[in-house]
Amino acid sequence: MAFTVEHPNETDKSAEPTPVGPEQAGLVLEELDRILASKFFKNAERSRQFLEYVVRNKLEGHVEHLKERSIGTDVFQRAPGYATGEDPVVRVQAGEVRRRLEQYYQSLPSRPTVRIELQPGSYSPNIHWASDDSEFSRENQENSQAQPRSSRIRSFPAIMVGVFLVTAFGAGLIYNRSRMSQGPPAPTVSEKFWAPVFATPQPVLICLAKPVVYRPSFGLYQRYAKTHPGTFQTEVERSNQMLPLHANEKVLWSELVPYSDYGVAVGDVYAAVRVSSLLGQIGKPSQVRIGANYSFEDLSNSPSVIVGAFNNKWTMQIMPGLHFSFAEYNGQYMIREQIPGGRVWRPNISQSQQAGEDFAIVARLLDSKTGQFTIVAAGILGSGTQAAGEFISNPTFLERGLRSISPDWQKKNMELVLQTTVTDSVAGPPRVVAAYVW
């Protein structure tokens, strides 16, 4: 097994590269393990798979695998004939790996013995060495010949230690070769679910709604304080305490004012935080957009996760025409299956105990109305939205929920109806109760 590298002091790119033997290959694998275990790659599964794939194929001499289409097929599960010009997933991930490698080497306190680099425009990794060992080897040989016989005899234990180390290294090399022959690990269900977000360099937009919210005017607080001296004197009190007006007390419309700073639902926030955290772990940038801070044009330019149902106009515009959709009838909110005699799911939450049952939809749309990959995570109530956010961001929930779904779901559009049991206003683990793939 041998491959070629460039030394850091080489400036002539046409010069003949230096071949690497088994010992140096072992050092490269050790450096690869250190990189993959570092904080820069530890939780970035896509970057880990990409880097390990290109390094190991380089070591094994499979240079034919270091092409964009081969990497897209083997690592990112693209079809063998996919259009690389339309799907830049490999180029995007290569840039991410370069960035993480730079961060890793910048964090080291000293220059490493071996350095793995991925140059722009290439998927074949370069290996750089801190120094050339040939001069050191010649010097050791000369010193050995100059030693007296008695000294060489006394060095016999050291020779035995060297034999032991070489034997141990050979066993390690066999183990590493065994690992290389296994190829990159198979993608997890969570990686398959989120794979389309890497088809574009654009960040994922996490879109929350901000409905209109009305608040008592300052004058209404003052009116109440006249009969209840010392109350609601500060903004802290007005923002954190309810105004306990009698149920029959009349309030003028002018005493209620729209308040633009308020309005994000608690369940939506929980879901957005979970999704944002997951995207950070897999190395995909994201941006949170709230209310009027994003438009349909934004959704048409980036993959997105749209959070919330009846409070989010984009959810309600995207869902009509899908197999499962949100519906409102006589003031009751529900999820309806859009076929004759279709099923209906309604929440059942006790207002006094804040417990019961809620439902949600997770829609994974490869070809949504926006033209971009879109995920909808929305519950009938806030607890359902929270459960939907937990489902798409938790690998265990995804693995369990998609276990019985059509095996080719990752290449199709998909809708799931989730059920969650609510206790003290907190959503429990989500469970898939219906699915549709097309």
Which secondary structure elements does this structure contain, and how are they paired or packed?
Elements: E1 3-5, E2 18-20, H1 22-37, H2 45-60, H3 68-74, H4 89-107, E3 114-117, E4 126-129, H5 134-146, H6 149-154, H7 156-181, H8 189-194, E5 204-208, E6 214-216, H9 218-227, H10 235-240, E7 256-258, H11 266-281, E8 286-290, H12 296-301, E9 304-307, H13 313-318, E10 324-329, E11 332-337, E12 344-345, E13 348-350, E14 355-365, E15 374-379, H14 382-393, H15 395-401, E16 414-423, E17 426-427, E18 431-437
Parallel strand pairs: 5-8, 5-9, 9-15
Antiparallel strand pairs: 1-2, 3-4, 6-7, 10-11, 11-12, 13-14, 14-15, 14-16, 16-17, 16-18
Helix pairs in contact: 1-2, 1-7, 2-4, 11-14, 14-15
Helix content: 25-40%
Quaternary state of this entry equals single chain
Number of strands: 18
Low-confidence stretches: 1-19, 132-159, 161-168
Distance between the termini: 47 Å
Strand content: 15-25%
Report the structural category.
alpha+beta
The helix tally amounts to 15
Largest sheet: 9 strands, mixed
- What number of structural domains do the residues give? 3
Rg value: 30 Å
Averaged pLDDT = 83
